[in-house]
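discrete fold record:
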Amino acid sequence: GDSLFIKVKHANGKRTQEIFGKGSMEAAWPEKQRAYFINSFESPTFSNIIMTEMGTRSADQFKWYLDSVVVTKTNYLIKNGGKLSSQFMNWQKAEIKYEMECFKLNYPNWFYSMRGIPNEELKVDPNYYNYLNGFNINDTLSIGSNQYRLWLKYYYMYELKKSNKQLGATDMFNFAKVFFTGKVLSNFQLHLWFDIIIYGQPTDAQELYPIIKNKMGNWPEFYVLEQIYKEKLPFSPGANAPGFTLNSIEGKPVSLSDFKGKLVYIDFWASWCGPCMREVPAG
């Protein structure tokens, strides 16, 4: 329902912009917040600040630091965002909170991975995670927040690792019911399916497709993900390869169907791809 207009000016090597119309205050807020915290929490080097805080504080002190970031940014939002819509305020509060909650939950792993050291985990007191006992995991007001949905994924991975279970696609789908309920559960399961479509095995995505469709088939979000799913199906292992015709080095048209019944190896490459160019002599 918003109707936004952006006026951009370039003067003396600087770019400025103004936003007008319905929803303009909400649209302009992220830049306003970034400008205010540009030397701290919105700094381009904030990840370096985080690493410094990780390295100089105990685990509990680091949690306290992350909570202080949330308090500071939320207080700024409340003090200066009085005319923002309540829906936007809830979304922005969730974005602020769960960005830091992601750091908090992943602290033992990210302590090393942010320093470029893979497969290492910082040993922390098991009581470190006790704060989750009173945590509102099913935060329905925050469903629209990208940071919250990301946190749900990290939380699920934390619980899955703790359970020490090796689960198939359907079992992973059902395992989420142990922790999530209602709209949060449905949203998480839909995003879990999407992750499997993009990063997992096509057979797993196919296994979950009828379950997802039966449960969320009338959701607009499902329709969007279903199109992505169907676009990837022709490229699944075992599927018939889509036909195409291209010119050979000699300039003659060659069709994939010309090689029917034979083993065909196709190497996709690009001139801007370093590893591709290194393989060119071998081709």
Summary: Residues 54 and 62 are 6 Å apart (CA to CA).
